[in-house]
Amino acid sequence: MGEAYLDDGDKIPGPKFGEYAMKYSECSSAKSGGNLGWFPRGKMEGKFQEVAFSTEVGKVAPPFKGANGWHILLVEGRRA
């Protein structure tokens, strides 16, 4: 992903998130617009899980470095 997007990744508008993921992501989820689907606590690595569960629904998390590289997350919802 380009450095400009890492600097301002949290400013990516939610509706454009999938488009940006398909264009810039190096993750296998890029093909689906970055959609990782639902996942429970304990499934993802530490920092990724921490950010995913502390970001408000509807918000894009600031870029962060996890065990598998840099990430930008859009939290679309949570299951109870």
Layout of SSEs?
Blueprint (H helix, E strand, L loop, with lengths): L2 H6 L8 H8 L21 H9 L9 E3 L2 E3 L9
Antiparallel strand pairs: 1-2
Organism: Rhodosorus marinus
GO molecular function: DNA binding; peptidyl-prolyl cis-trans isomerase activity
Pfam families: Rotamase (PF00639)
What does this structure look like?
With 80 residues, this protein is an alpha+beta fold. It has one domain: Chitinase A, domain 3 (Roll), CATH 3.10.50.40. Helix content is 29%, strand content 8%. Strands 1-2 form a two-stranded antiparallel ribbon. The longest helix is centred in the middle third of the chain and has 9 residues, at 46-54. It starts with a helix and ends in a 9-residue tail after the last strand. 11% of the residues are buried. The mean pLDDT is 85. Its EC number is 5.2.1.8. One of its GO terms (molecular function) is peptidyl-prolyl cis-trans isomerase activity. Residues 1-77 form the PpiC domain.
| Named CATH architecture | Roll
Mean pLDDT: 85
Distance between the termini: 32 Å
Coarse morphology: globular
Radius of gyration: 12 Å
Whole-number total of structural domains: 1
CATH topology: the name is Chitinase A, domain 3
Largest sheet: 2 strands, antiparallel
Q: Per DSSP, what share of the residues sits in E-state strands of 2 or more residues?
A: 5-15%
Quickly give the structural class. Answer: alpha+beta
Q: Write the element-wise H/E pattern from the N-terminal end onward.
A: HHHEE
Oligomer: single chain
Tell me, what is the CATH class? Alpha Beta
